[in-house]
Amino acid sequence: MKKRKKFAKIAKIVLPILFTLIIVLVLFIGYKFITKDPNKTFLEKLEMDTYAHITNYAIYGIHMNIEGEFTLPDDVQNPKLLLANDSTQIEIPWELEEENHTYTFKTSNFINEGINLENIPVADLYLVIEAESTENDKNLKYYSVENHSKYENMEYYTLTKNHKNNQITMEWNTFEECPTWRFQVKETTLPEGVYDITIDPGHDGTDPGKTICLLSNDLYDAGDISGCYQGGTKVEEREINLNVSLALKQKLENLGYKVAMTRTDNQSRVEIYEPMGSATMANDTKSKFSLAIHSNSSGVPGGDSTLSGLEVYVAGDINFDLAELFVNEITSNANTTPSTKIKYQVANGIYQRFFTQEEIDNDDYPETKSLDLIYYYYIREVGGVSTHAINNGYSEYHINEHYNSNNTAEPYLFELGYVDNLKEVNNLRDNADGYAEGLAKAIQKYLEQE
Ligand SMILES: [Zn+2]
Questions:
Q1: Looking at the chain, which terminus has fewer C-beta neighbours within 10 angstroms, N or C?
Q2: CB neighbours of residue 427 within 10 Å
Q3: Are 416 and 296 in contact (CB under 8 A)?
Q4: In this structure, how many other beta carbons lie within 10 angstroms of the beta carbon of residue 123?
Q5: Which residues, at least 6 apart from 138, have a Cβ–Cβ distance to it below 8 Å?
Q6: Under CATH, to which class is 197-449 assigned?
Q7: What stretches of 276-406 show up as alpha helix (H) in DSSP?
C-alpha cells in the first residue's frame, strides 16, 4: 500500500512534465517542418568552397545576359549553367571557353539574346553551375555564383499576358556563408507607373519636324514659313508621326499591352533627357521596348526626294530578328518598300548609326550637340550600358539618369518614309493604320516565336 501510494505521488508529478515535454517536442518538430526553407534541400547540395564569379550582367528588352568565370576541380567535367531549385531545372545556353579547368562564359554575343526573362516559370530559382564527377558514379555537383560585377540586385516585370505579369527579383544572398544569386519569380499585376512598351512620336509642339507644302502634282519644302503659298496643303512630320503612334498604341492595347507615350497631341513639348523625356521615358516606366516613330526627308532643294521607303534604325551588337520582322510587316501592311538609301544600311531596310569606340575615346561626337540629329543617339541613350550611352551631363542637355543602367528597354527608331517624296507622302498621310498594323504585327510575331 505504501509503495503504491508513493508511486502514485511520483507519477502525479512526473507524468504532467513528461506530457508537457512531448507536446513541446511535437510542436517544435511541427514548427521546424512548416518553416523549413523549401530551398534548403537544394542549397545544401551546393559545394561550399568553390563558386563562379559573375563579372557582368545586363537586361536589355526582354533578355538578360550574364558573363562570368570559374575554375573547377580536376575530377569534374561538362559544366552547365542552370536556373534551378529542387524540382525545376532550366538549362541556359552559353558561349563557354575552357583552358586547364578554368572557364569563361557569356550567355550570348548579342545584347538582345541570352536568358529570355519572359519564359522563366513562377518559382524560386538559383543561378548555379552543374558539373559531373569524372568518377564512375558520375555524381552531379552544384556550384554557386558570386557577384564580381559593379551591379547589385534588380527587378524585372514581364510583358502583360492575359492581364497578368510576373515580377522577377534578382537578389544576391548567402546560404551558410556561400554566396547565392536568387531569381524569385512571382505572379503580379503591373504597378502604377510600370509599362510594357513606350512609343515616342517624333518631334513636338515646338518642333514640327520636316514640313512640306503639297500641291496637286508637286510639293515644295515649307522651310520655316507658317503657311503654304499657291494654295498648297501643309504637311508636318510631327502629325504623321503622331497619327501612326496613336493607331499603334490602340493596336498594342488591343493585344493586351500597357502602352506609354511621350506625347498624345501636337501641342505638348517633349524634353529629351528630363524625366519622362523621349530618351528617358522607356526606362522611367520600365518598358521592355521603346519605339520612336519618325518620317524622313532628304532635303532636296525645292523638294521631291529621290529617296523613298522605310528605314529601321537599330543598335549595334544585336540580332536582327525583330528588326527584320519590322521591315517585312511594315512594308507588306503599309504598302511600301525598304528604303533606297545606302548610307548606314546594314541589311535590307535596317540601318545602324552609332558611335565607334574611337569616336567615343576621342570625345569626337559632334552629333550629340545637334538637335537635328538627335535620333541617332536616341538608340544609344535608351539602351544604357548595353548600347554605350554616354550622356552623363557633359552636353547642353539634362543628364540622362539611365545612361549607366544595366536594366533598359530595347529601342528601335523608324523613318517610315520620305515626306518630301511626292509618291510617298500621301501614303504616309493617309495610311497611318497600315504602318501601325505592320509595327504591331511585328511585335506580336516576335513575341510568339521567342
Ligand atoms: Zn523626325
A1: N
A2: 18
A3: yes
A4: 15
A5: 132
A6: alpha beta
A7: 281-284, 321-333, 357-361, 374-382
Query: pLDDT grade, residue 305 (50/70/90)?
Result: confident
pLDDT one-digit tens code per residue, 311-339: 999 998 999 999 999 999 999 999 999 99
Digit-coded pLDDT (tens) for 81-129: 999 999 999 999 999 999 999 999 999 999 999 999 999 999 999 999 9
For the chain, the average pLDDT equals 90
What is the structure's pLDDT at 15? 86
Kind plus residue range of the DSSP H or E element containing 188: strand 178-188
How far is ligand 1, taken at its centre, from the CA of residue 371, in Å?
Answer: 10
Q: How far apart are the CA of 215 and the centre of ligand 1, in A?
A: 22
User: How far is the centre of ligand 1, averaged over its atoms, from the C-alpha of 169 (Å)?
Assistant: 37
Q: Cell digits for 163?
A: 492581364
pTM for the whole thing? 0.89
Residue 368 Cα to ligand 1 middle (Å): 15
Whole-number Å distance between alpha carbons of 272 and 277: 5
Top CATH class, 40-188: mainly beta
For residue 273, report the distance from its CA to the centre of ligand 1, in Å.
17
Give the bridge partners for 328, in sequence order: none
Cβ–Cβ < 8 Å for 391, 270: no
Q: How far is the CA of 295 from the centre of ligand 1 (A)?
A: 5
- pLDDT confidence of 241, banded at 50, 70, 90? very high
Where do the structural domains in the chain lie, given as residue ranges? 40-188, 197-449
Contact 238, 202 (CB under 8 A): yes
CA of 404 to the centre of ligand 1 (A): 26
Residue 194 pLDDT exceeds 50: yes
Q: Which three cell numbers stand for residue 434?
A: 497600315
Per-residue pLDDT, averaged over 40-59, amounts to 94
Q: How far is the CA of 217 from the centre of ligand 1 (A)?
A: 24
Residue labelled with grid coordinates 518553416? 35
How far apart are the CA of 68 and the centre of ligand 1, in A?
40
Better-scored residue on pLDDT, 344 or 108: 108
Return the beta strands (E) in 316-448 as ranges: 345-347, 350-351, 407-408, 410-418
Q: What is the pLDDT of residues 3-20, one digit of tens each?
A: 667 777 777 888 888 888
Q: How many angstroms does the Cα of residue 160 sit away from the middle of ligand 1?
A: 30
Domains 40-188 and 197-449 share a fold: no
308 C-alpha to ligand 1 centroid (Å): 15
